[in-house]
Design a protein that fits this description.
By secondary structure, the protein is an alpha/beta fold. Helices cover 44% and strands 11% of the residues. It has a 4-stranded parallel β-sheet. Strands 3-4-5 form a 3-stranded parallel β-sheet, with helices on both faces. A two-stranded antiparallel sheet has the order 1-2. Strand 1 and strand 2 form a beta hairpin.
């Protein structure tokens, strides 16, 4: 009996130890304690910011897309990943079917805290309903390096993640130094025109507008409430602000894709635009959007190159960069994609006046 007892005891101990070795407890970026598998093979992300994060880290680990790939995305995403299932998102439109997500067998789910539709309560509900551990991240521009290092560690992708984090830190340090040198009263006034008529925008400090701040611009739309989404603006208010530079969201351009003159397109939307300083001086620019909008939409790591793009427009003498080379290097490093000269022309034609 003693021998049998010892065998049972040893087997039980081995099983318990094996289970413990297969799981680990971490604290995510919201302070939640989460038990995750020791080895992670597949990840479900509930929104586009996470898709881009995984695109830059390792597409082999992505369980599925949030939405169908757009043509611009397909150009940069290797074809073998185009057939990944579309799992949908959680939050506002609630497009994700939990059973479909579970069938993809992800080891963990990644969600973000800055999105109004993604709260800690939602994460807890999803985790309880599916049994999939949810790791929450905070994807503000300033936290991108931290996000990379954190996710790289839990996905066993530290070398790659640290390299991307180092690049982001370098750009953020450059941005911080330049912004500190600028006097607030002398900052260039910027308006980010969104919506079908350009009469929607994103306020200072929001996930959709903060790149203006990081590029040293003064976002004329002040944040007067807790909303992170778009704000409706009237032409009279824009005339009062009289911005020096106007940025056109890619969706405005998609409505008239053959129009190459950003100023002309904006003035065709409303005659009032012709009285704005930026239009008079032809300082209206289409925002690069291949494969992702560099200012937001979605607000993820794509915004790092957005800092350089916008900074180069606002203060070329201070940023002092070869923007074509910066785009090429960013695409090669983050997307594992080498854009051709023709593609760079297409992307950066938006910056020509």
């Amino acid at each position: 009996m003693n021998k049998r007892f010892k065998i049972i005891f040893l087997l039980s101990t081995f099983i318990i130890c094996s289970v413990l070795l297969e799981a680990r407890t971490i604290t995510d970026m919201t302070g939640r304690t989460v038990e995750i598998p020791d080895k992670i093979n597949k990840v479900y992300v509930n929104h586009q910011p996470g898709i881009i994060l995984m695109h830059t880290l390792d597409l082999d680990m992505l369980a599925g897309w949030a939405f169908d790939l757009l043509p611009g995305e397909k150009r940069v995403v290797p074809e073998k990943y185009h057939s990944l299932p579309v799992l949908g998102t959680t939050g506002g439109n609630n497009s994700a079917n939990r059973e479909v997500v579970m069938a993809a067998k992800p080891d963990i789910a990644i969600m973000f805290t800055y999105l109004e539709t993604t709260t800690i309560n939602l994460a807890e509900q999803f985790q309880k309903a599916t049994g999939i551990p949810v790791v929450m991240l905070e994807m503000k521009v300033k936290t991108i390096p931290e996000v990379y290092r954190f996710v790289g560690k839990i996905l066993d992708k530290e070398e790659r993640a640290n390299r991307l984090a180092d690049y982001c830190e370098k750009i953020l340090e450059k941005s911080d130094k330049i912004c500190k040198e600028l006097e607030k009263s002398k900052k260039i006034k910027v308006y980010y025109a969104q919506g079908p008529k350009g009469l929607n925008s994103s306020a200072q400090g929001t996930s959709h507008g903060e790149i203006i701040d990081f590029a040293g611009g003064f976002n004329v739309v002040e944040r007067d409430n807790a909303s992170d989404g778009r704000i409706s603006i009237n032409m009279e208010q824009i005339m009062i602000w009289n911005p020096d530079v106007i940025l056109l969201a890619d969706r405005i351009h998609s409505a008239s894709p053959t129009e190459k003159d950003a100023t002309k397109l904006l003035m065709s939307l409303n005659s009032g635009w012709k009285n704005i300083k930026a239009c008079k001086e032809k300082r209206v620019y289409f925002v690069p959007c291949i494969p992702y909008n560099v200012l937001d939409m979605p607000p993820s790591v794509n915004r790092i190159i957005g800092i350089l793009w916008l900074g180069n427009i606002l203060y070329p003498e201070k940023f002092n960069i070869d923007i074509r080379k910066e785009f090429y290097d960013f695409y090669e490093l983050f997307y594992n994609y080498k854009p051709t000269e023709q593609e760079l022309d297409e992307i950066l034609s938006f910056t020509k006046e």
